[in-house]
Design brief:
Elements (H helix, E strand, L loop, with lengths): L5 H16 L10 H7 L5 H12 L9 H7 L5 H14 L7 H7 L5 E6 L2 E6 H12 L4 H10 L2
Antiparallel strand pairs: 1-2
Helix pairs in contact: 2-3, 3-5, 4-5, 5-7, 6-7
Length: 151
């Protein structure tokens, strides 16, 4: 099997970095504070909605990173996955989440999404690995260290 050229890997990392940098206005006029409060709601669906909305904020949501990190330990696997997705969407501004994301790579929970009426299952650790890619090159040193220790 051929290895991908270095420029392909560089492009992949750059796309991850750029993906988090675009700041879309969040879910029609609701401020970040609203979504941060929603993270404490007892309904997992509301927490997931808030996490997705925060992830769309880009650089504007940097101060939400600690709250997103806390949701990586949520009781609900779908919430944990949404927290990882949001951190990855924020890109390099979420680099303080790298240690928590590396720990979450061991999460054996499964997420369930339904597209066009067909359920799809994805392990939380796979979503977490995508999030690390979204954060970009800042995650590489810690990821390499973790991989070396995972013999």
């Amino acid at each position: 099997m051929r290895k991908p050229p270095v420029f392909v890997l560089t492009l992949w990392l750059a796309m991850g970095i750029a993906g988090g940098a675009g700041a879309a206005t969040l879910s029609e006029e609701k401020p970040l504070g609203h979504w941060l409060e929603s993270l404490e709601n007892s309904d997992a669906a509301i927490r997931i909605e808030a996490l997705r909305a925060i992830g769309k904020l880009g650089l504007e949501a940097e101060k939400a990173v600690p709250a997103l990190i806390a949701r990586l330990a949520d009781d609900d696997a779908n919430v944990r996955a949404a927290a990882a997705e949001a951190l990855g969407a924020l890109g390099p501004v979420a680099k303080s989440a790298i240690p928590a994301l590396l720990k979450a790579l061991t999460d054996q929970g499964s997420t369930v999404t339904v597209e066009e009426g067909v359920p799809s299952y994805k392990p939380v650790w796979a979503v977490v690995s995508d999030a690390l890619g979204g954060i970009g090159t800042a995650a590489l040193p810690d990821l390499i260290t973790a991989l070396r220790g995972a013999s």
